[in-house]
Please model this.
Amino acid sequence: MRRGPGSLYRRLRSLEYLVTRDRAAVLAFLRDRRGPPGLAGRADLVRRMIAVTNHVRGYHTLGEMLAVCGEILARPRPVVVEAGCAYGSSTAKLSLAARAAGGRLLVFDSFRGLPPNGEVHEHLDGRPVRFRAGAFRATLPAVRRTVARRGAPEVVSFHKGWFADTLPELAEPSVDVALLDVDLIESTRACLRALYPRLAAGGVLFTLDGQLRATHQLLADERFWREEVGAPAMPRIDGLGRAKLLAIRRPG
Model:
């Protein structure tokens, strides 16, 4: 069976999301009554997200993305930030949710892949992990084309550069939902320093880097929150110590 993009193999693989691992997440998303759209609209969002998965390589599950999109839809006219978009699979999906909620999506990425680094990590299951410079590189024009074909380009703005340079210049005083997929701990630090103080009351900041033991260690460090982020106390973090998708919630 041919295994190229759009092949029958890929389409059949996508059905696994609905009948196995992500079935509960899909049902929870469909039953969620917070914000728009209704059941039919949410079912269409799921369908379109699966279509994106079939055509664009991503590093998340459908269940993870539905959890983020559920929080986007729960807020009227949300400002959404994505840090680290790789090839644009998550960007296209987030843009669909942002449009449905009447909001905007601000995308930050170097579009040069990961920076040079000396970080050596351990996966939660004990495997060693290293990230080479330039990994996950996609050009800005390529990601724009992906969003134009599969997402909602009219609600998306792109910001090219290293996080430490671009995120502190974020013009929005308040962010409702943010998603980090940045791999490196130094990048996670830079994103949290810039974004958590801007997170709206009751807002949520997700990270998809919970597969790394070091991410959990950083987020459990009260000194980091107090001295680097300026938070009066460590926030509530759903999934800390066990999950790949972590949700950092600012008190309402």
About this structure: The two ends are 51 Å apart (CA to CA). The chain has a mean pLDDT of 91. The chain has one domain: 58-249.
